[in-house]
Design brief:
- 67% of the residues lie in helices and 0% in strands.
- The protein is built from four helices and no strands.
């Protein structure tokens, strides 16, 4: 019975140590990758991590190690769970619609609103080019 308890405690301790190490390494790599690619060089990013971030990353790793029974499945299933929670519906995304469908819809809307090619005689001509900025001046009155 004593060996069973020691084995269970040893297994729990081993699981906690491994989980804490994995969480620490992932957090450290995430910080270094983010800092090194933006404005820091790798050596400076490592010094900044050691000076500012190491303590809080150690605490998070320790807490994850202590509750490794919950943390390990979360680490393993992280991508599957996020894909499931944030999944887009199956179908054609709006970005991939056929250009012809979009052109037909624009044409239908212009026809119903009476603008564009379907504008009547009294309509204003469509301006060419980008709009001019007023630069603090009031627009001229007609």
């Amino acid at each position: 019975m004593l060996w069973l308890m020691l084995g269970v405690l040893g297994g729990y301790g081993l699981g906690a140590a491994l989980t804490a190490r994995v969480v620490f390494e992932r957090s450290r790599a995430g910080f270094l990758d983010g800092a090194a690619t933006s404005r820091f060089r790798r050596a400076r990013a490592l010094a900044d991590f050691e000076r500012h971030e190491r303590h809080q990353v150690e605490v998070i790793a320790l807490l994850s190690g202590v509750c490794w029974v919950v943390a390990v499945p979360v680490l393993v299933l992280k991508h599957a769970v996020t894909d499931l929670l944030f999944a887009r519906p199956v179908g054609v995304p709006a970005e991939r619609r056929c250009d012809q469908d979009v052109a037909e819809r624009i044409d239908e809307l212009e026809r119903s609103l009476g603008i564009g090619a379907y504008a009547g005689e009294g309509s204003l001509p469509r301006p060419e080019g980008p709009p001019q900025r007023l630069q603090g001046r009031r627009p001229p009155r007609p």
